[in-house]
Amino acid sequence: MGFTLRRFLGGKPSKAPLLLPFLLTLLLVGSRGDSNAMDNVATERMAEESHRQDSANLLIFIMLLTLTILTIWLFKHRRFRFLHETGLAMIYGLLVGVILRFGIHVPQSMSDVILSCAVNASPATLLVNVSGRFYEYTLKGEVSRGKGHQVQDDEMLRKVTFDPEVFFNILLPPIIFHAGYSLKRRHFFRNIGSILAYAFMGTVISCFVIGLIMYGFVSFMKVVGQLGGDFYFTDCLFFGAIVSATDPVTVLAIFNELKVDVDLYALLFGESVLNDAVAIVLSSSIVAYQPAGDNSHSFEAMAMLKSFGIFLGVFSGSFALGVATGVMTAFVTKFTKLRDFPLLETALFFLMSWSTFLLAEACGFTGVVAVLFCGITQAHYTYNNLSPESQDRTKQLFELLNFLAENFIFSYMGLTLFSFQSHVFNPLFIIGAFVAVFLGRAANIYPLSFLLNLGRKNKIGSNFQHVMMFAGLRGAMTFALSIRDTATYARQMMFSTTLLIVFFTVWICGGGTMPMLSFMSIPVGVDSDQENSSSAVLDGSQRRNTKHESAWPFRIWYNFDRNYLKPLLTHSGPPLTATLPACCGPLARCLTSPQAYENEGQLHDDDSDFILNDASVSSMYADVTVSTDASGSRTVNPKRSSAASTGGGPFDEGLDHELATAEHEVAIRGTRLVLPMDDPVEPPTTVTLPPPPSPPRSEPRRHRL
Amino acid sequence: MGFTLRRFLGGKPSKAPLLLPFLLTLLLVGSRGDSNAMDNVATERMAEESHRQDSANLLIFIMLLTLTILTIWLFKHRRFRFLHETGLAMIYGLLVGVILRFGIHVPQSMSDVILSCAVNASPATLLVNVSGRFYEYTLKGEVSRGKGHQVQDDEMLRKVTFDPEVFFNILLPPIIFHAGYSLKRRHFFRNIGSILAYAFMGTVISCFVIGLIMYGFVSFMKVVGQLGGDFYFTDCLFFGAIVSATDPVTVLAIFNELKVDVDLYALLFGESVLNDAVAIVLSSSIVAYQPAGDNSHSFEAMAMLKSFGIFLGVFSGSFALGVATGVMTAFVTKFTKLRDFPLLETALFFLMSWSTFLLAEACGFTGVVAVLFCGITQAHYTYNNLSPESQDRTKQLFELLNFLAENFIFSYMGLTLFSFQSHVFNPLFIIGAFVAVFLGRAANIYPLSFLLNLGRKNKIGSNFQHVMMFAGLRGAMTFALSIRDTATYARQMMFSTTLLIVFFTVWICGGGTMPMLSFMSIPVGVDSDQENSSSAVLDGSQRRNTKHESAWPFRIWYNFDRNYLKPLLTHSGPPLTATLPACCGPLARCLTSPQAYENEGQLHDDDSDFILNDASVSSMYADVTVSTDASGSRTVNPKRSSAASTGGGPFDEGLDHELATAEHEVAIRGTRLVLPMDDPVEPPTTVTLPPPPSPPRSEPRRHRL
């Protein structure tokens, strides 16, 4: 119980419209349930059987994932790009769902396990007294309404459809953390204003637009008589909130592979990552708003304000908590010599990141949001303090977790279409939802882009706007939010509709991204590396560019971060003794790491003959962002960045080196150590220091083993 | 439910001595439980509260682990070796246990969550009817006998003491897999006969010796009147089985760090790894034996034979399953070009290894045993097919998982001493158990060593025997087996005693290993590398040695493996076209990978001037075993293996290179790229191929980022 971290479906029990007094009938469902023959040995056998069944169910998912991986490989191998791996995972999930639903019949013995006992409340823990022994039961969730008697028929499907809180507590955190940890911070910060506008204002606009349109549709349906249950205005708003979260997975993998314009990439990625956080907090604020107008479900200014307060409180609390643990990790890794033991360091990093989630949940904030900001902080500060091996390890670990969780969610989505047992497909509602989602996205992108273009130097072109409109896929977060609560008719209809929206956007919009890009004549194959290396030669002009392009709050933040926070939290940046006023001398000295003084030397002597050494040092300590796409493919980058470009400093050139290197490594591996002849070993340029290309001789051997 | 894989405590419900008819009293525990005020909103609030509590509990463990990591670092940093990290984790666990037990009082509101409802059986799933809604509850386990009424007092402790099946299903598999995956196969196979003897015969001997001694003690206690409940002969045997499993963690970490004699290391490691598997299957066979003599609990030849049959069946089934999935993974990685995408490859590797566990559990075999053999197979075959990056990734991943799981278990052990609520500390039983464990270990080591020395060329010296006797620590597996079932008086007494045995052996024997070694004058600091490099120069004499030292079944296996299995399953070894008879030509051609033909070239031209190239190739494709100790510290290995030693071939020299390299890397990192001057770059020895020490210039840069 302490381990699986179920929320016990907190949202559900509250919506019972009437409260009956004690209802102490005990129903024994199943054929043998009411006979004395059901002794404890049989119970044990059944428990074992149930465990086996669980193993088999999980095995289905593992097999699905394995199959997906093999097919992904085949697709990548054959350079087939129209169907992304997530779409593929969904298709496999669908197939397995069909098989489970129509192909396999549950043996009747399974139904013996069920025993129904009626009480007046559903606490999280239930103690059952069996012949003087007490057994503890934990609440798993609500079974679909009114189906108590038929429940044995679909036992297996119900088992495959597991606890939705698993998504929130186990599968989403690594995905969101990875998104934060692998954020390309340079382009992100260059567009921070626009990204925040799209993510916050855009999502709220989209939520209300969709909510209002859906309210219109629902009212119409009520008039026509197509509505089978209650559907309040808050439900409409809730629907708007959950389908407003765009997914950072599918399109961006394609964008990354095709090397689409970096600003467009940053806008879409930044928006969709922050989006998720906004949608979670927004939807939970709307749910919190509901009980206030419990019976009326109408609009109330006071409750609205309260909701807004909750939104702000939860968001800022989660933000602060995530940043706080990130900063703490940075401190710990800076002031201990933990970097001598990469395993310990990686374990610490992992545990601290995980504790963010738990801490936030324990404090009543949103764990997923906290984890996002923790990831960004870890990437910005802690990453610089880690040993190179830990840097590799952490990014690979979270890449793997992200990959597994993501494909699991998408294949589960496919499965759910058939295994979920309370689908409500209402054609009118579905049509309305598609229209609303389309209009909501349009109301987010076009007006905001217009406003933003008034202030931006490099305008967001109309073709960019169309692509952003088109690329608003709905994915894991939308699904997780909608499956969280499927107790009422309204929620069931929302869930079924959401599932269709996700399928449609992932398959159609995801698959159509490439034709869309060429139709919009957006340049593909833009080498962000090229941009870097040309500017890097100009010694920091890029950095200055970044500053000039941004608004003044960002400039202030940038300077503060560079002069105080980075030196305080990491080994890089100028020493605090140089940036802090003289009165803080002793404190500054004790907080500055020895490396920082060397960095100071670098900053002054950028054009001396130390440049090669500086280059390699800065590419070692640079604040590099991890970025491979979720599928693990390295983008093809045949152009090697020249040695001169390594002075470019602390943004994401490091990545490009890595990609280039990985590329070379593949070539070497493929041809079995026949070295590329167009790549001669350069002679050393200084006497005391060998050039970066020829490293200490013992180092490379490690990586061959 | 499908995800957390609980076994629903299969063993427990069967032992109810009497079966009362319907007992339909519904007890509402708690102050507000029977009032109408307990409406659904309150239930929701409580569920949320419970979720927060869960998060906080898990947070305690995370904090414990973080603290442990930091202290481990401090110990390593200060070279303090008397207390191993596992012992440390236990101490922290103990402290937190004391605080939870005596420091914190549970708020009374928590007890509201509990509701007691009495029925005649305890099925795995319970449906509760609340005002027409059905909620599903899953069986969590039995609460301590007769404590139903006081249960609200120790709610928090009960929550911290989570489901023991978590150990078996989540924490043990990665530990055991890592043990198999990181097995030093060369020394392991050289001593395979002795290891099997100690692991199988030794464990069985120890089990029966301990069982008999305990039966004597228990009978004596019964006479004296010190026994508070039933304790049958099968219980004694079960106790013997669970405390016979020695732990591969603590001592071996010390041995690895100190570079104790490799054969002693191999004997202890091999024994303790296989030990675990034997103990699991043995104990479950004894449990399976029990119901047959349900009431008598006496010795029956027929039931004994049946138990033995179950033992053999389960063990061989698990073995076959583990090997089968390992072989399948090898096939998949060999015949696809998955190695171009390390992420996919790593994910596949992880999923296949995990599916072994699930498959075995679904088939009714023992997942942990299957995972062990899967790990060995993966290391022996699949590892050769992986890309270098995946080799790094997989070993780092499992190293991390192993580290986290291990420290979690040990800190949990410490916690349990105070948080577990049904301890039965019986002084007589505890004394008896310590005597029995000591004698059981002696009856395992000394007679078997005597018998083995009759057939062995390099005898197991008496000082080695004493160390093996002393180093028989009990750890994670013993704990997991004993906490699995704590329903009866006998099991509770066993659990408490086992806990004390684990504490004693880990702290006293673990801490005393170093003095013991010097007292027994066992050489410390033996460089297995030295042995390798000297023999490697003799071109395969080491391999021949290995063969000569072993018995004929191993020689046959070795040749079969080298000529057929390795070429079939991996890219290394001679091509199948050369080893298979001519009639199988077409099949052999289609199963042989292109690399194998190159290997054939190598095998003939070992002394040509290609030797440097071959060296680097073979160190790239060698069947290297992963081996860092569980703590992540690299052993200090200042001696660099010379370039000439790399021809040594497919055992574990690769590892030693790696260690040496890691050592250098640390030096480089620490001194900020000031290269060690005693390590000049060697000039190329051939014109077409640069020497292995100076790799393609782009490669090293990747690892600095």
TrEMBL record, chains A, B:
Residues 627-645 have a biased composition (Polar residues). Residues 1-33 form the signal peptide. The keyword Isomerase does not apply. Keywords: Antiport, Cell membrane, Endosome, Ion transport, Membrane, Signal, Sodium, Sodium transport, Transmembrane, Transmembrane helix, Transport. Residues 627-655, 673-705 are annotated as: Disordered. GO terms for biological process: regulation of intracellular pH; sodium ion import across plasma membrane. It is found in: Cell membrane; Recycling endosome membrane. The keyword Cell membrane applies. Belongs to the monovalent cation:proton antiporter 1 (CPA1) transporter (TC 2.A.36) family. This is Sodium/hydrogen exchanger.
